[in-house]
């Protein structure tokens, strides 16, 4: 784009204000239609129905069912390694709540991706916060708990805050894919999440990493710059390293420790 055709500061500001107004208007409409969450037994039955119907279904088949069945009682979980998952979901649920686990230990690039996604896409970022700040956790449990007991750190900064937040929804959508490693090879497209007591949908379960990047390129979807710098799976900065050629995408998470998952999907 030439300098003369680039939008002015005033035009960019108005575009951002219009974007924010559209989000606010959607939330007002959504609030007027909000109802009570359905009982656990009904949600379990819906999970069983979805599991039967969509065992290996692509996202474009399962997501219309999610939108019709759960509507805005649905949340998307996004680590901000990329925005492909919320982009796919927003085609069926524009302005969907998109949960970001603000652990206090993120790479600067991840926070920048989060901010860019919020300002440019038809979704609603919900920052999921731990009960303790990093400083409060250090004071109560000792500095750098992640190095001494990463399981306890993840439990406090990821698992408990997410479980608390998910209590306000009937279904949650994640970006877990079967190609990410042995622990995720059998990921179902639809399942019952007993730990969080709601329906869990993994619409990208059958996608490969290359398909994810191709989708992002074709649809101009934001991708965390760390992905092209050797980080195909991005978590907290102290617990994530680059992945060497030939390693599985999650090899850089908690490298050298007997830990492969943070507890969100186990």
UniProtKB/TrEMBL annotation:
EC code(s) of this entry: 1.8.4.10
Name the pathway: Sulfur metabolism; hydrogen sulfide biosynthesis; sulfite from sulfate
Q: Where found in the cell?
A: Cytoplasm
Q: What keywords does the record list, in alphabetical order?
A: Cytoplasm, Iron, Iron-sulfur, Metal-binding, Oxidoreductase
Which cofactors are named for this entry? [4Fe-4S] cluster
Matching entries from Pfam families are given as: PAPS_reduct
Q: What class of enzyme is it?
A: oxidoreductase
Q: Does the keyword Protein biosynthesis apply?
A: no
Q: Where is this region: Disordered?
A: 1-24
**Matching InterPro entries, A to Z?**
PAPS/APS_Rdtase, PAPS_reduct_dom, Rossmann-like_a/b/a_fold
List residues of the Phosphoadenosine phosphosulphate reductase domain.
76-241
Q: Where is the composition biased (Basic and acidic residues)?
A: 10-24
Which CDD domains does the record associate with it?
PAPS_reductase
Question: How are cofactors bound according to the entry's free-text note?
Answer: Binds 1 [4Fe-4S] cluster per subunit.
* Residues at which [4Fe-4S] cluster binds: 153-154, 236, 239
Primary subcellular site in the record, as a coarse category: cytoplasm
What positions constitute the catalytic site? 262 (nucleophile)
Per its database record, what is this protein's job?
A: Catalyzes the formation of sulfite from adenosine 5'-phosphosulfate (APS) using thioredoxin as an electron donor.
> What name goes with this protein?
Adenosine 5'-phosphosulfate reductase
Q: Which organism is it from?
A: Aeromicrobium halocynthiae
Task: Name the gene.
Answer: cysH
